[in-house]
From TrEMBL, chains A, C:
UniProt key word Cell membrane: no
Residues the record lists as binding Mg(2+): 206, 220
Protein source organism: Methylacidimicrobium tartarophylax
Protein keywords: ATP-binding, Ligase, Magnesium, Metal-binding, Nucleotide-binding, Tricarboxylic acid cycle
Protein name: Succinate--CoA ligase [ADP-forming] subunit beta
Class of the enzyme per the UniProt entry, highest EC level: ligase
ATP-grasp domain ranges (all copies): 9-55
SUPFAM superfamilies the UniProt entry points to: Glutathione synthetase ATP-binding domain-like, Succinyl-CoA synthetase domains
Function of the protein: Succinyl-CoA synthetase functions in the citric acid cycle (TCA), coupling the hydrolysis of succinyl-CoA to the synthesis of either ATP or GTP and thus represents the only step of substrate-level phosphorylation in the TCA. The beta subunit provides nucleotide specificity of the enzyme and binds the substrate succinate, while the binding sites for coenzyme A and phosphate are found in the alpha subunit.
Cofactor binding mode and count: Binds 1 Mg(2+) ion per subunit.
Source organism phylogeny: Bacteria, Pseudomonadati, Verrucomicrobiota, Methylacidimicrobium
Binding site for ATP: 46, 53-55, 109, 114
MF GO annotations: ATP binding; magnesium ion binding; succinate-CoA ligase (ADP-forming) activity; succinate-CoA ligase (GDP-forming) activity
From TrEMBL, chains B, D:
Record SUPFAM superfamilies: NAD(P)-binding Rossmann-fold domains, Succinyl-CoA synthetase domains
Family matches, as PANTHER family: SUCCINATE--COA LIGASE [ADP_GDP-FORMING] SUBUNIT ALPHA, MITOCHONDRIAL, SUCCINYL-COA LIGASE SUBUNIT ALPHA
A Pfam family matched in the record: Ligase_CoA
Functional description taken from the UniProt entry: Succinyl-CoA synthetase functions in the citric acid cycle (TCA), coupling the hydrolysis of succinyl-CoA to the synthesis of either ATP or GTP and thus represents the only step of substrate-level phosphorylation in the TCA. The alpha subunit of the enzyme binds the substrates coenzyme A and phosphate, while succinate binding and nucleotide specificity is provided by the beta subunit.
Biochemical pathway: Carbohydrate metabolism; tricarboxylic acid cycle; succinate from succinyl-CoA (ligase route): step 1/1
Entry GO MF terms: nucleotide binding; succinate-CoA ligase (ADP-forming) activity; succinate-CoA ligase (GDP-forming) activity
Binding site for CoA: 17-20, 97-99
E.C. no: 6.2.1.5
Residues given in the record as substrate binding sites: 160
Subunit-level organization: Heterotetramer of two alpha and two beta subunits.
The protein, known as: Succinate--CoA ligase [ADP-forming] subunit alpha
Similarity field: Belongs to the succinate/malate CoA ligase alpha subunit family.
Active site: 248
């Protein structure tokens, strides 16, 4: 679960990381008030979306940039007005962009140096790794490619923990000395404590900056939390409701389904993430484009199948529905009954292609055929995918 | 012959009185697996279906039944503890089905297992099966048949599809191992491939990978330096969107290794044929086996 | 730092351990009100002192027992009145007893079994150890001596931590089964978390009891906190002010001196704990009895020496003062000047014996002699101790 | 000859810019100790008294100066970290003077040191001195003189008293080690006794123990099974009341093993003469040495 910048600031602030003062606004007047309450300008106004590249992005309205520097509170209000309610398109959002419902208003200190700091899980080494670089505020992937020596890593043995001396070593590698060295080491230790205590999957500070009077400060932070660990963090689990930008995803979340909206026209419903990806892959091979990724999981019941249908059909892009179930624990006859019920109730206007395989698949197919509903079935995967692509083409 | 499990494997089911635990314990028993004990703290002394004795701890279960493998259905919040409990009793093989275990729990678990000989499969996996002998997991047993192909997979239902395609063509499996989809898990692709390589009953290997991580590349490194059996691979997620990842930190550690393209390139380098359509898995295995014979 | 029972209950309650409801009272009426607020009797009233053996103790007033069971709130008030303001003498308090300023009033559930549970540091193995026994509510040292097999221990590797399965193993060794097993394991896990997070040195629950409806409950708890770690626990550091029962110890605490009041007549002031103990030992050998242990530490200054003098002289038992300093970091001339100043200002009525040795001891002795004050000096330790014992005898 | 330190020992002082750190670094330098570096994070590049270079980390100090011992004056809240920093740089000997380190910090530190060859003395100790060669600690150097007696002690000023009594009688010391009074600390009595036993320059051993713990008993166990040098012991706290904390956290009586009586009994069993009065330490050592010669 990725957090908005303003949420990340709130969490890191609790751990005592130095962050320029500011707050989040949902109305332009509020943005101005926040700026008026800050001790000094200039101010920065940042559109709150869950995607990077905001600075170089543009709004559908034509307004350029999701990050603006302002000298006066009145200017803050003006910029906030241009952003709020708009849709921001960046290199990472895709052409559909993301709606901007909140802006962050904060003090914009004078920056003399930009650094990079992150903590994440290294899957290969099976432990967390603290990453630092003197090259911050830029595309860190490029730094990693072009000058790998500029990226410094400390892997943390979970049994030993991360000690301040390691933080000082990293800070020194990041080119810090004098009073900035212990300051930054303290910041890294706090970030690591946050990472562990909150079960983060990613904590990235870019840039980490040296500002006026040789102080270190968090200028932008990207935080991902481990969804599997939310059960032990009720205080951050509430962020969940705020971070879902896509309405369909919110619906799916409520139904306990794993859904990611995409831009194609074939609505997919599959059990298992690997099979769901393979299904998308094969649709592609035959010239189709999935409208979504939807994994109903290994133990989905009739009720979830019905809800999944509802979500697929509510998507105006969808021109055909492809149900692909390999029955293991999940019996195909149960799935077939769920499909029949869902189709009977919701009377979809697009063709439906179903492939059932595995446990009780014969019985499942029989139920579909006996229902008399306009459901197309297929036995093998290639056949099913071709039928789904053809069905979507029909209704175009 | 097979890897990891066979008809002598004696299994304890941790969390046997839960809904999933009792359901799958029965399914494994029906398949012929020797489920010799169950564990649910506080339920010691009871029995499942009047046949499987239940204990308060793995230690007691092991002492009473000599179990050497564990199948875990304990809920996510207690699963790491259950794994360490089994490891503390020196259970040889732990298969953890539980999904949703926090990653940092698994980081600690893996670190603890470094000092032990216990092997872990999963979590968030379908388990392991040696057709006709022993099923420790949640896969539908009837789709499998004994034979020469060793399957190792990061996926669940996609593996069933692959097994189905093989069995439809009359190609059986030596063992099938679903290693699980979580970022930090037990046995890796490479380790299972090495086991199949050493197993005389395995004549060909099917690898089912997916986007993310770099386990496929690790396996490729192994092939580069060792003689090997006929092998085919399918990699899911070629068309998955690059994800909603926000930071760049992941790429700093693994670079582009997580993409299907990078994985295909690594396999190509060592001459492993990558299957392009998930509908052609059975056919591809037939081909590599036929090529090896000729 | 040892905590009162009511403080221990408060801390353990925060960690979710099951504790019968109750509260602490400083007035008899308050005790009654607490009992009235509890859902059911019988009630237990317990004198709050930092020593064990309360049940079998007696008050100076003649009232017997520091722990009483009461059936009605009125009885609670009566018992609290008998205890509050009294002095309770138990096997552990010494004949002088301890003042009772607070009583705990709590529900007294029906107990069907008494167990023992503790966590402490095993110095020999250099790790914490969780100890459990089915034999609770009794002198656990006796159990350890008579039937060592009844004491079960789990040593915790600090790198691996303490896991719930270990707690279950211990609970099973304590003879628990059925629903009591996971309940008790959960309690042990919580106690361990408390132990680590609060830097405890001892957490002892005796008895841990099985009460009505097969529930587990904490009936009495003794908690010691690591004074060295209080800096990172500001919330419990405030307990410090409440736990000092002895007025002289409170004074010393304020002055940063390590003081323990004893019952003899020779006031001692020594630098270093080992030397202070050796000084007490040698006084004993010559028939003297120290009035206190007072370690001024390695770096005490003139000011602290003056304060230490003040504390010694405020003790009416003191018939002679023995200053014993081995100058290392601390220079004897500085100490001598501190003594001269203190004696000049406070004009003690008891003889003073001083032994200065080590850095600048010649100069220190010269300062004492030149002051013209009635200070007796000695060169070697035996001579000094004999002089101190003799001095105390003079004024008897 | 000596144990632990000699005139080739190269010392870094961690926390050298603090009040105690700079004071004692100078005192050690004056004694002749080779203080080759200091560490204070953020003060790298400066010098102490224009002679001792200061670094940001032990790693840098070691690389630049080849230091092989560390003397720590870092405040209690950061002392565990300082010890681990020195250990991570594979410093051979760490002497930690800091008092007031939380016990659970030391539990973690000792666990980490198990995997290392680094030796720790302290914390909350006066340090170690080899008279005439090297002083790494806060003891007054001038009271010592080179000679045949190895001293190991759990106490501070009481050790100075003992040294004083020896030097007054013209009996010098091979090395003096104050192991510190905290419940969990580095080298124990027994380990230092073993070192003295192996050191050819040490002809007799003086042990200064106190109430609490069971290190004296551990040392007694060693003597039981090994040949040994003339040894005398003094044990402080015979008259300390039970159960009251007497300053050293280690001096809490934790059970029968902690009492002076129990320790005397253990020493008696292996024939070690226990000195009954702290005024007779010098005399007692003279006697055991004379007895050994005759």
């Amino acid at each position: 679960m990725n957090l908005f910048e303003y949420q990340a600031r709130g969490l890191l602030g609790r751990y005592g990381l130095p962050i320029p003062p500011g707050d989040v606004a949902t109305r332009p007047e509020e943005a101005r008030q926040i700026a008026e309450g800050l001790s000094k300008g200039p101010f920065v106004v940042k559109a709150q979306i869950l995607a990077g590249g905001r600075g170089k992005g543009h709004f559908r309205s034509g307004f350029a940039g999701g990050v603006h520097l302002c000298s006066y509170p009145a200017e803050v209000e003006e910029v906030a007005r241009a952003m709020l309610g708009g849709v921001l398109v960046t290199a990472q959002t895709g052409p559909e962009g993301r709606p901007v419902n909140k802006v962050l208003v904060a003090e914009a200190p004078q920056i003399s140096r930009e650094l990079y700091l992150a903590i994440l899980i290294d899957r290969g080494r099976r432990r967390s790794v603290v990453v630092g670089s003197a090259q911050g505020g830029v595309d860190i992937e490029e730094v990693a490619r072009e000058s790998p020596g500029e990226i410094h890593r400390i892997w943390v043995d979970p049994q030993v923990g991360f000690w301040p001396y390691q933080a000082r070593t990293l800070a020194a590698c990041m080119g810090l000395c004098g009073s900035l060295l212990p300051q930054t080491a303290d910041l890294i230790v706090r970030l690591y404590r946050f990472f562990c205590e909150c079960d983060a999957s990613l904590a990235e500070i870019n840039p980490l900056a040296v500002i006026e009077n040789e102080k270190i400060a968090v200028i932008d932070a990207k935080i991902g939390l481990d969804e599997n660990a939310l059960f032990r963090h009720p205080e951050v689990a509430t962020y969940r409701n705020e971070v879902v930008e896509d309405g369909r995803e919110a619906e799916a979340l409520k139904a306990g389904l794993n859904y990611v909206g995409l831009s194609g026209e074939i609505g997919c419903m599959v059990n298992g993430a690997g099979l769901a990806m393979a299904t998308m892959d094969i649709l592609h091979r035959y010239g189709g484009e999935p409208a979504n990724f939807l994994d109903v999981g290994g133990g989905a019941d009739q009720n979830q199948v019905t809800k999944a249908f509802g979500i697929l059909m509510a998507d105006p892009k969808v021109r055909a529905i492809f149900v692909h179930i390999f029955g293991g624990i999940m019996r195909c006859d149960v799935i077939a009954r769920g499909i029949v019920e869902a189709v009977t109730h919701t009377k979809p206007k697009v063709p439906i292609v179903v492939r059932l395989q595995g446990t009780n698949f014969e019985e499942g197919k029989a139920i579909l055929h006996q229902s008399g509903l306009p459901i197309r079935t297929a036995d093998d995967l290639a056949d099913a995918a071709q039928k789904a692509v053809a069905a979507a083409a029909e209704t175009r | 012959m097979s890897i990891l499990v066979d008809d002598s494997t004696r299994v304890v089911v941790q969390g046997i009185t839960g809904r999933a635990g009792s359901f799958h314990a029965r399914a494994c028993l029906d398949y012929g697996t020797r489920i010799v004990a169950g564990v649910t703290p506080g339920r010691g002394g009871q029995k499942l279906d009047e046949r499987v004795p239940i204990f308060d701890s793995v230690a007691e279960a092991k002492q009473a039944t000599g179990c050497n493998a564990s199948l875990i259905f304990v809920p996510a919040s207690g699963a790491a503890d259950a794994i360490l409990e089994a490891a503390a009793s020196d259970i040889d093989l732990i298969v953890c089905i539980t999904e949703g275990i926090p990653t940092l729990d698994m980081v600690r678990v893996r670190r603890c297992l470094e000092d032990k000989k216990t092997r872990l499969i999963g979590p968030n996996c379908p388990g392991v099966i040696t057709p006709g002998q022993c099923k420790i997991g949640i896969m539908p047993g009837y789709i499998h048949q004994p034979g020469p192909v060793g399957i190792v997979s990061r996926s669940g239902t996609l593996t069933y599809e692959a097994v189905w395609q093989l069995s439809q063509r009359g190609i059986g499996q030596s063992s099938c191992v679903g290693i699980g989809g979580d970022p930090v898990h037990g046995l890796g692709l490479q380790e299972v491939v090495e086991m199949f390589d050493r197993d005389p009953a395995t004549k060909a290997i099917l690898v089912i990978g997916e986007i993310g991580g770099c386990e496929e590349q690790d396996a490729a490194t192994f092939w580069k330096t060792s003689s090997r059996k006929p092998t085919a691979a399918f990699l899911a997620g070629a068309t998955a969107p690059a994800g909603r990842r926000m930071g760049h930190a992941g790429a700093v550690i693994t670079g582009a290794a997580g993409t299907v393209e990078a994985k295909i390139a690594a396999f190509d380098k060592v001459g492993i044929s990558v299957i392009l359509s998930p509908a052609e898995i059975g056919e591809a295995i037939s081909k590599v086996m036929a090529a090896a014979v000729s």
